[in-house]
Design brief:
The complex is a heterodimer of chains A (683) and B (122). Chain A has 29 helices and 21 strands. Chain A has 683 residues and is α/β, with parallel strands linked by helices. Chain A has 4 domains: 123 residues, Beta-Lactamase; 160 residues, 2-Layer Sandwich (Alpha-Beta Plaits), CATH 3.30.70; 259 residues, TIM Barrel (Alpha-Beta Barrel), CATH 3.20.20; 110 residues, Up-down Bundle (Four Helix Bundle (Hemerythrin (Met), subunit A)). In chain A, the strands form 4 sheets. Chain A has an 8-stranded mixed barrel, surrounded by 4 helices. The model of chain A has no long low-confidence stretch (mean pLDDT 87). With 122 residues, chain B is α/β, with parallel strands linked by helices. Chain B has 5 helices and 5 strands; from the N terminus they run E-H-E-H-E-H-E-H-E-H. In chain B, strand 3, helix 3 and strand 4 form a beta-alpha-beta unit. In chain B, helix 2 runs parallel beside helix 3. The radius of gyration of chain B is 13 Å and the shape is globular. The termini of chain B are close together. Classes of the chains: A alpha/beta (683), B alpha/beta (122). At the A-B interface, helix 20, helix 21, helix 23, helix 24 and helix 29 of A face helix 4 of B.
Chain lengths: 683, 122
């Protein structure tokens, strides 16, 4: 037989694995037995350094010794623990020989492998390795999970509890960085020792890798029983460590979960303890945090809801509805607000309250805002094609406004819809959004205004904005929060708030619109407070976009609203409320119910007085009803003054006797005002 | 003597008013808000409706407008009380504006309401 073929055949048929490398330890040939032994095919092995087989069990010193022997004696013989391609450990008896060329220089190395995995000694060794951490000798994750499973079964059987404590060292990295890995390893061994000493035989201490350990406390009768042990762990681990003649302070952060309160499987229990450990780190380290199963369930539920919303967005399940905004005074539609709805396939049409709170502050909110904006623009295009041009207001969340590129994004969107005048778009932001980060909000708002769009402060009155802040915000509209408007007819304080906001808007020259105008009567009251624009069920509910053109066509002004327009510039309701309040206060004072004399403005400076001598005379001076107002008003203030004079107070009885006169004068004045209004209304 | 429907959300006041009217010989039905009031109105077509203005569900203004839309020659009286953010005057003025025959501020005497009823029906 040809010697060459003989060798080839030998290579192929021998049961020992053979690997041949070049002088640089690069594999140039392996045989079939090698592939069977390691799981790596010839092509996978050739060209690589055999170290890819290492299982990480032997120390660097071990390999240094191997190479020393090879270089000096030309061969090495011993046992190697390698890793099969499928991950399991294999024990090999190995002989490596250096093969010199003609000049005596090493040209190849030849390694012969035989599998001894199943011999008893190596099996014991492998088992120890498979289930224990090489550095500390503690159980590893595999054994921990195994023991945890048994402990769970036992807890179920015997009705007891167990605690899984996940430990991560605080301040371990500096030791490693300053003194090297050997010192770090030494410290980890010391930690393992301390952990072993302060737990019971029945507990398990495991190392998961790095500076992470798990202590499993089994057989607890009550949840509280684990506390002393955990406190002991914390204090024992916090005692200083001496490594390389230096003292180090290392502490531990511990996350704890209790079975069966947290009724999960072994893997999940460890993960939950890990999550709690993370919270302990965040809370300031050297402490423990108990995993909160309820909170976790909520968190998971929220994540699920978020992904459902995101899927809904992708699947085009969201819709825009539009609610008309009306100028009650002129009786015209001035625009509409775009409002998002979710056409949920199972739950039907969902209002924003069902999903917006879930995504507040989340990136998904930005995504939804963007969708709303682009959809609104497209709808405006569609309406324009039908001959309907409407101003549209669109809600923008804080998260979106605070995105650095929002103004640029807005500019791009506007550029894609050249037929829509930017002036017809109003962005509604919450009062709180603007105040959270005023400087940043201001910048974004100003950039958007440059593009031509306007801003409205939504839910105004709920955000506690100071006047200084408010003055600096370049918003053109205030939207009075619907909670105040809804109850203004029955709640005096709400009425006052509406009035104050209207006055504020007038003072700072902003437009004002009331939300939540539920009935026509609300509209009439709003008009008399000087608020001309409104939106709410009393006008129209939010409607799908296809319904809006017809609605606009058929909209007519309610007969009540014309009443509000009667006396221009005079909030009749306020005048009435102001004078009636004074009467009540004088009454209280004279009856001793109020020790302090009330302040009653004089006829020149009270609200009605100012209106009378300015706009009133100018516009209505020619009317008979108007002319009777002045003497009545003068009489009212004169009388109030007299009743409050010091000498009148000496003679309370005389003052009390004249009190009905004040009531009557007030009634007459108000009646006359209403008469003026009626006179103006009748054509 | 007439058939009268009283629409009023203050139950005690409503019963008192109904009592007064019955004692004067009228035939009286009651309803606690505008929605229920309209139901009663359509069922029994009274000659006169006396309605409060501020009520939950459907207020007096909407109720009056819907009754007028029915096209019957039903007579209407609006009543309204104080102790609210707005005075009866505002409510009653609003009611007068949409065409009720009589308005009456609460509280009123037996004589005042009976006179108003008589005036509204004549």
């Amino acid at each position: 037989m040809d010697p060459q073929r003989l060798i080839t055949s030998l290579l192929a048929h021998t049961h020992e694995g053979i690997v041949i490398t070049d002088a640089g330890a690069m594999i140039v040939e392996v045989n079939r037995a090698f592939s069977e032994l390691t799981g790596y095919s010839r092509t996978e092995a050739i060209g690589r350094n055999p170290r890819f087989l290492q299982a990480g069990h032997h120390s660097p010193e071990f390999y240094a010794h191997l190479w020393g022997a090879l270089l000096e004696q030309g061969y090495w013989r011993g046992e190697l623990l390698n890793r099969h391609k499928d991950g399991r450990m294999i024990a090999d008896r190995v002989t490596i020989s250096a093969v010199p060329d003609d000049n005596g220089v090493t040209a190849y190395y030849v390694g012969l492998f035989s599998d001894i995995t199943h011999s008893s000694e190596s099996r014991r060794q492998l088992q120890q390795m498979a289930y224990h951490d090489a550095l500390t000798g503690l159980p590893n994750r595999l054994l921990l999970l195994d023991r945890l499973q048994s402990a769970i079964a036992r807890a179920d059987r015997e009705n007891i509890m167990l605690a899984v404590c996940y430990l991560d060292l605080d301040g371990f990295k500096p030791v490693n960085d300053l003194l090297g890995h050997a010192a770090g390893d030494q410290l980890l061994i010391m930690v393992a020792e301390r952990l072993r000493h302060c737990t019971r035989e029945s507990d398990t201490v495991a190392r998961l890798g790095g500076d992470e350990f798990v202590v499993l406390l089994s057989s607890l009768n009550q949840a509280e029983e684990c506390e002393p042990t955990i406190h002991r762990l914390l204090s024992v681990l916090a005692a200083p460590y001496r490594v390389h003649e230096q003292s180090f302070d290392v502490t531990a952060s511990i996350g704890v979960t209790l079975y069966p309160l947290d009724g999960c499987d072994a893997d999940t229990l460890v993960r939950h303890a890990d999550q709690a450990m993370y919270l302990a780190k965040q809370a300031g380290r050297n402490r423990y945090v108990l995993f909160d199963a309820d909170q976790d369930r909520q968190l998971r539920a929220r994540r699920q809801q978020l992904s459902r919303i995101e899927a809904g967005l992708t699947a085009h399940e969201f819709r825009l509805y539009f609610q008309p905004k009306v100028d009650l005074y002129r009786g015209v539609v001035i625009g509409a607000e775009a409002l998002v709805r979710w056409q949920h396939p199972e739950q039907g049409l969902l209002p924003p309250s069902e999903f917006l709170p879930l995504i507040e502050g989340h990136l998904l909110m930005v995504k939804l805002d963007h969708w709303v904006f682009t959809e609104a623009l497209e709808q405006m295009d569609r309406w324009q094609a039908q001959g309907l041009s409407l101003a549209i207001s669109i809600n923008v969340s804080a998260a979106t406004l605070q995105q650095a590129n929002f103004p640029d994004w807005l500019a791009e969107q506007l550029a894609e819809h050249p037929h829509i005048p930017p002036q017809s778009i109003e962005l509604e932001i919450l009062e709180t959004t603007a105040l959270d980060d005023l400087q940043r909000a201001l910048q974004a708002i100003e950039q958007c205004i440059q593009l031509g769009v306007g801003f409205a402060l939504d839910d105004f009155g709920t955000g506690y904005s100071s006047l200084t802040y408010f003055r600096r915000l370049p918003v053109r509209t205030l939207k009075i929060d619907q909670s105040f408007v809804r109850d203004m007819l029955i709640d005096t304080e709400d009425m006052t708030i509406v009035e104050v906001v209207v006055n504020l808007a007038q003072t700072f020259q902003r437009a004002v619109i009331a939300e939540g105008m539920e009935t026509a009567l609300h509209g009439a009251a709003l008009l008399r407070l000087g608020c001309h624009c409104a939106q709410g069920y009393g006008i129209a509910r939010p409607m799908p976009p296809e319904a809006l053109p017809d609605w606009v066509k058929t909209f007519t002004r309610h007969p009540l609203w014309s009443a509000g327009a009667a006396i221009e510039g005079l909030p009749l309701l306020n005048v009435e409320a102001e004078h009636r309040t004074w009467v009540r206060q004088v009454d209280d004072f004279l009856h001793g119910a109020c020790p302090q004399a009330p302040f009653v403005s004089d006829e020149q400076t009270c609200r009605f007085g100012r209106w009378y001598i300015q706009q009133g005379l100018l516009r209505y001076g020619h009317l008979a009803a108007f002319q009777t107002l002045e003497p009545l008003h003068h009489q009212f203030h004169e009388l109030a003054r007299e009743l409050m004079e010091p000498q009148a107070r000496m003679d309370v009885d005389a003052a009390l006797a004249r009190l009905p006169e004040l009531y009557t004068t007030c009634d007459l004045l108000i009646e006359q005002l209403y008469r003026l209004q009626r006179e103006l209304l009748t054509p | 003597m007439a058939t009268i429907l009283v629409i009023e959300d203050d139950e005690q006041f409503c019963q008192m008013l109904a009592q007064m009217l019955r004692q004067a010989g009228h035939q009286v039905e009651t309803a606690a808000n505008g929605v229920l009031g309209l139901e009663r109105f359509r069922a029994s077509a009274p000659e006169l409706v006396i309605t409060d203005i501020l009520m939950p569900e459907k207020d007096g203004i909407d109720t009056i407008l819907e009754i007028k839309r029915e096209g019957t020659d039903t007579r209407l009286i609006a009543i309204s009380g104080g102790r609210r953010a707005i005075t009866p005057q505002f409510n009653l003025d609003s009611a007068a504006l949409i065409g009720v025959q009589q308005v009456l501020a609460k509280p009123f005497s037996r004589q005042q309401i009976l006179e108003a009823v008589e005036a509204a029906l004549s």
